[in-house]
Structures are given as C-alpha cells and as structure tokens.
Amino acid sequence: MSLPDQLEALLFVADQPAPIKSLSQALQVTEGQVEQGLEILERRLEERGSLRVVKLAGGYQLATKPEYAQLIAAFLKPQGNRLSKSLLEVLAIVAYKQPITLAEVEQVRGVQSDYSVRALVERRLIQDMGRKAVPGRPVLYGTTAEFLHQFKLNDLAQLPVIDPSNPESSELAVKSLFDE
User: Where would you tag: which of 10, 45, 48, 49 has the fewest CB atoms within 10 A of its CB?
Assistant: First the structure.
C-alpha cells in the first residue's frame, strides 16, 4: 500500500479537514513524508477522476472538482440553508472583530442581536471563546473551524481586507466573502 493511497483512504473517511500532524500520527510517518504523499496524491487526482485535495481550515480534505458542481447539486437537491442578512451581518462583525461580546456586536449593529448570535452558535459558525475580564464577565465570541470550512478559508488571514478610510470597502469585502 503506497503512502498516497493510504492518505486518500484517510481523507475519504475524514468528516472534517485533517491536519498533517493527525495524518502523520495515524500513518506513523513524518510530517514531511505526509506532505510529499499529499503532493503525489494531488497530482494524481488532477490527472484523473472527479476528486481533488483541498487545504481548508488548517487541514486537508477530499472534495469534488468544481466542474461536477451542477451534477452533484442536481443529485443532492440541497435544501436552502442560506444565512439571512441579519445572520450575515453578525457573522461578519464577529469574524472581523473577534473576540467580541454580544453587547459589542449590538453596539456595532445598533439592534438587538442575541437571536442571531444564538443561531450562529447552533450552526457552529461562532463559539464561546471565554469571558471578558470586565464586570459581569460577558462571553467573548469568535469564529470556528466550521466557519473557515464553510467559507473555504484556510485561516482568518484570508478574510478580504477592509480599508478603514473607505466606508464602502467593508461592504464590498463582506459581500465578496459571503456571496461566493
């Protein structure tokens, strides 16, 4: 059994992006060997088949190639699980200003946001990151690995850049992220 074949099998059964360290431990090889095996697997999959290796949320995962998207969508008939405008607003605020409290989110939005925060926690897009060291010790929220995965980001550094001197840049940056 070759290392690329073993990696393909592990990535096939992984329910989330697998970090190199986990793959290395499972296969009892070095992280460098895993990286080489992933490169071989990527090249092999590029040449044939419907799958590819993608790097997401700090790990690797098998995904279908983009040209198969319509076929898969027609087969799965996915239910619309889109985020409402209010959920997107709150998610964008948390993504760019994390860690952030509910009161701080509400201050930015100017409206009550507890429902939106709860809904995003339930969808595992944001999570409790601890408590702020102020009276009342409010919960601090931040994005999750699921957020990175769902928006096809490897890390938060890949968020679109917002230019503070241009008020329209924040809207454009957030729109580019969430409309994909």
Answer: 48
